[in-house]
Model the fold of this input.
Amino acid sequence: MEWLLLLCVLSPAVGCIINGLFGRWTYRAAGVIGSTFLGISFALAVPLIIYAIQGHVVDYSYYHWIVSGKFTVPFGLRLDSLSAMMLGVVTFVSFMIHIYAIGYMGGHKGYARFFTYLNLFVFAMLLLCMGNNYLTMFIGWEGVGFCSYILIGYYYEKKTAADAGRKAFVTTRIGDIGFIVGVLFIILYFGSVKFTDVFAQAHMISPAIITIITLALFLGAIGKSAQFPLYVWLPDAMEGPTPVSALIHAATMVTAGVYMVARSAPLYALSPTGSLVVASVGAFTALFAATMALTHFDLKRILAYSTISQIGYMMIGVGVGAYWTGMFHLMTHAFFKALLFLSAGAVMHAMHGVLDMRLMGGLRHKMPQVCIVMIIASLAIAGIPPLSGFFSKDVILSEALMLGHPIIWLVGVVTAFMTAFYMFRMIFFTFFGESRVPEGMHPHEAPSVMLVPLWVLAVGSIVIGGILGVKVHGHISIEHFISLTSPNAFPIVHKYSETLLIIISIIAGVLGIAVAWLAYIPKGAFSFRSFVVRTFHPLYRCFFNLWWVDEIYNFLFCRPFWHVSERFLWKAVDVKVIDAGVDDVGRVAGLTGRAVRILQTGFINNYACWVSAGALIICGWYLLKIM
Amino acid sequence: MENYVPFLMVAFILFAIGAIGVLVRRNFFVVLMSLEIMINSAGLVFVILSYFSGTVSGQVFFIFVAAVAASETAVGLAIAVLMYRVRHTVDVTEFSMMKR
Done:
C-alpha cells in the first residue's frame, strides 16, 4: 500500500517532468498527457481511499531526509481518514479541471507550460496533504505557494497579471513565516516533526507553548487560506487563467490552511484560545468577504470573495473544534466552487474574455447548459436542500451554536443570507433579463470537452452532501470518518432543536434568493435598487470600494516601505556605504601603487642594490644572533 | 683542526669584489663577469670547507654549480647580444624599457 501511495503522489510529478522537459515536442498532446497522469493519480487514489474507509492507516517513511543527532526528518507519507478525504477531493477535482483546461486553454500560448505548472501544483498539494510530518507538509505548502505565483502570473506579459502573481507570493509569504515559526517551536519542544510523535507528546507540553504553536501555524493558514487580514491576494489571483482560479480556489491551495488546522487537531484541542482565534477570524472573514461580494460587477471577483467567505465558514468549523464539519464543507465547496469557476470560465470563453456582468444579461438563451449547472452550483452554495452546500453549511452552524458560540452562529446565518443574495444577483445579472451583450459579440455554448467536467461536477455538487451528510445509524458518515483522525475537541454545551436550526438556515438562503430576485427581475427593480443604494449610501460605498483595504495597506505598509527603500536603503546605504566602500577599496589600491612606484626606477643597478641591501640585512641579523 | 679562516677571507673578498662590480659597473659584460666572480667565490667556500672537513661532497657540489653557471652565462650572453641588436648599446642603464 505504501508504494501505491507513493506512486499516487508522484504521478503528477511525472506528468510535470514530461511536459516540462519535452513540452516543445508534445504540442497539442500536452493537455492529454497532463490529464492522463492526473487520471492515473485519481485511479490509484480510489483503492487507497477504500483502504482508509476500512479503517486502515498507512504511515510509512521512505527514507531519512535530514539526520542531525537525535533529530531526524523522514520523507514519509501518511494515509488516514483525513488525508484520504483530501486525496480524493484533490485528485478528482483537479482531474476534472485538467480535462476542462484542455478545451479552455486550446490555442493559448504556452499550452505545454500551462500543464507543466498545473501538474506541479497538484503534486505540491498532494505532498502537503499526504506528508506524515510537518516538514514534508511544509515542502508542499511552499510548493503550492510557488505554483500559485507562476500560475497567477501565467500571462506574464500583462502587467496586472505579473503584479497579481507577486502579490499572492509576497502576501502568503507573510503567513509562511508564521508557519515556519510554528514548526521551529515544534522542533524545539517536541524534538520531532512527525505527526504521530508530536501528537503523542502534546499533552505533556505547557498550554502556553501549545497556544503559541497553534497561533503561529494559524498565521500560515491565514496567508494560505486567504483569511482576514491577508486575504488581499486572492481577488487579484483572478488574473490567472480560469482553470487556475478553479484549482486554487476549489481543490488546492486555499483549503491547505483548513486541512492543516484539522491535521493539527490534537494541538488545537489543547488550546481553547488558539481555537477561538481560528473560529473568530473565520467568522469575521466570512462576513467581511461576503459584504465585498455584494456590489461587485466582475464575475470572477464575486466568486473570489465568495471563496474567502466560504473558507471563513470552514475556519469556523475547525475553530469551534468540530473538525469534521470544516472538512465536510471543504469537500462540498471543492465541488460547487470548481463548478462555479469553470462555468464562469465558460461564460468568459464565450464572451471573449469579458467578465463585466454589466455587459452580459440574457445569456440563458445562448448557453443553456452552462446556465443550468451554474444555477445548481449557486443553489448548492446558497445552502438550499438537498444540495450539498446545505448539509455542510448547516452542520458548521449548528455545531458552532451547540459548542457555545452563539455570536459566530449569528454571523454565519447572516453570511448565509448574503451568500444566497450575491450568488443569485450574479445569476440574474448574467443569465436573465435583457441582453446587454455588445454588438458584434456572439456568445455560444461551451464545447463538450468543457461541458462534461461541468456536468460531472454538477452531479457531485448535488449528491455529495446527501451521501455523506445524512444520518446512518445515529451518526453522520463523514463525521464518523473524519473523527477517526481528528475527533471533536470540545464537549457540546447547549442542546438546540436541530430541526429549528435547519429551518433557520433554509430561511436565510431562500430569503437571500428572494431579495436578489426582487432587486433584479421584476419591472421597477431598478428603482428599488437605487432606493436601497440611496438609503444605505455610506455602507454601499464601503462595500463597493471593498472597505478601502487595499488602499489602507498601500498607505500603511507599501508606501513606507517604498520610502524607506528609496530614501534610506538606496540613497543612503547603497550609494553612500556600499558603492562608496567599493570605490574606496579601489582607491586604496591605487594610492599604494603610486607610493610603491617610486621604487621602480628602471635602473637595473638600483634593483641589484636593493637585493644586496636585503641580503646584507639578513646576514647581519644572523650575525647578531650568533654573537 | 687547522685554521681555515684566511681561506674564507679570500672567498669573501672575491664575493665583495663581484658584488661591487655588479652594483657599480654599467657595461653588461662586466656585470656578467662580476656575477661569475660571485658564483665562483661561493664555489670556493664549498671547496674550502669540503677540504677541511675531509669529505668530497662540497667539491662535487661545485662541479654541478660550475656546470649550471656555464649554462647561465650562455643565456646571459645571448640576452646581451639581443639587447645590443635592439638598443645598439650594452650599457645596462639604457635597459629601462619596463619603466614606461
